[in-house]
Amino acid sequence: MYQLKISRRQMTGGMLAAGAAGLLAACGNRPGSTSSAGNGATAWVLTGGPEQTFRDSFERWNSAHTDRQIATEWFANDAYKEKIRTAVGAGNAPTLLYNWAGGTLADYVANEQVVDLTETTAAAQERIVPSLLDPGKIDGKVYALPNNNAQPVMLYYSKPAFEAIGAQPPTTWDELLELVPEFTAAGYIPFAEAGSSQWPYLMWIEYLTDRIGGAEPFARIVAGEKDAWSDPAITGALEKIQELVRAGGFGNSYGSVDADSGADIALIHTGKAAMILQGSWVYANFLTDAPDFMSDGNLGYMDFPSVAGGTGDLSNIVGNPANYWSVASNGSQEAQQIAIDYLNEELYNEAYIEALVTGGTIPAALDADDAIAASEHAEYLAYGYDMVKNAGSFTQSWDQALSSAAAQELLTNLSQIFLLQLEPEQFVANMNATL
Q1: pLDDT tens-digit map of 389-400
Q2: Packing angle of the helix pair 232-246, 201-213 (nearest 10 deg)
Q3: Contact partners, residue 267, CB within 8 Å, separation at least 6
């Protein structure tokens, strides 16, 4: 969900149950280490999250291809981002280039730092949910393939809170607003929100814009069209956000709540808040932080509500489609071919899918139903998988889809919208200046 350096978010789904705590620690603290796989191709990989899926996959490849090895080096998230930026700029990138697609990938393509995978990875592409391929495309050509789990944003809710006021999960924006005074009167914060982290604010404007005007308004922004932020769907989304703020939807202290520490989800499992709009990765955090709450089946989840008069497809979702592999252009032709063959052979094969599901994550693969059905967390994974598989579109998190400079400006201005320090018209003007 979101480019900022928030460790829980960067877990990209995490491992479920007991494994989650260890991996959360590993994501931030584990030092890099180089394998002894040989001198063929290279891959730099992130620790944490579905790390074991990657390790098993490279081990399978190297065991089966003793003369075409892939050497791996492992990094925590922040250390990787710092090193890869320098390596790509210096022409020393690993053969398999781990990335978040979006604006970063566009820069790689513009500078001819990655190769076109459209034709050469056709076999791998056939195993991937089509909407998850889109973020890896530039001008219709495939330059990156998803390599782990899909991370849609969902609206989670406390079943005990809803039972306390005798309410059902809202299916429309108007129903959502009607619940705000009811929850407030019952002593609940209607929505937990981690305003101190800023990036969780994005989920509201992303979904509201899509529900009002579909995926096209943001697509025009990504394309850099003049005054694209002036789309009525953007203004409508900002107005509804402020409507919710003024109604008391987030309580009074949301600007100081931190997502990295799990303070936002704690408001749910400690009985202080009723709902939270967050990425699928928080399910693992709920399991780790509140096992009793989860074992009693107290956490519900639902689609984002419709908006009256909106034209967006209700199957559209937002979030992190996945993380991605590209193939760097600076390597030898032999190394590039090894990397391409690895993608075609290993990416989302049966063992790869099983490992992702065992880790409690939503695979980006087309054929994962049987593996999910056999999972300990089948109900939740099936719900998220169906969201992804049947999505009319899967809009990438806006801070990842945009350039770093534009993303930071977006977060700054959106924070001011939520704090009622900026009018929608000024937000639009400020963001049009970034195009």
Answers
A1: 999 999 999 998
A2: 130
A3: 189, 192, 257, 273, 276
CATH 3.40.190.10 residue window(s) in the chain: 31-148+322-367, 151-318+397-432
Residue labelled with tokens 């929850």: 183
Q: Are 228 and 221 in contact (CB under 8 A)?
A: yes
pTM above 0.85, yes or no: no
The DSSP symbol for 148 reads S
Query: What residues does 43 pair with on adjacent strands?
Result: 72, 96
Whose CA is closest to 359, among 3, 6, 26?
26
d(CA 54, CA 359) in angstroms, rounded, equals 12
Residue type, 178: E
40-56 pLDDT, tens digit each: 999 999 987 788 999 99
Amino acid at 242: Q
Q: Using CA atoms in the order 13, 17, 21, 27, what is the torsion angle rounded to 10 degrees? A: -30
Class of the CATH domain delimited by 31-148+322-367: alpha beta
Q: What are phi and psi of 258, to 5 degrees?
A: -110, 135
Closest CA to 212 of 119, 141, 285, 313: 313
What is the homologous superfamily of the domain 151-318+397-432 according to CATH? Periplasmic binding protein-like II (3.40.190.10)
Helix-helix angle 424-432:232-246, to 10 degrees? 140
Assess contact for 212 and 312: CB atoms under 8 A. yes
Please tell me the predicted confidence (pLDDT) of residue 361.
85
Please state, in angstroms and rounded to a whole number, the distance separating the CA atoms of residues 253 and 87.
42
Q: Reduced to 3 states, what is the DSSP secondary structure of residue 107? A: helix
Contact 50, 359 (CB under 8 A): yes
Q: Yes or no: say if 300 and 157 are a contact pair by the CB < 8 Å rule.
A: yes
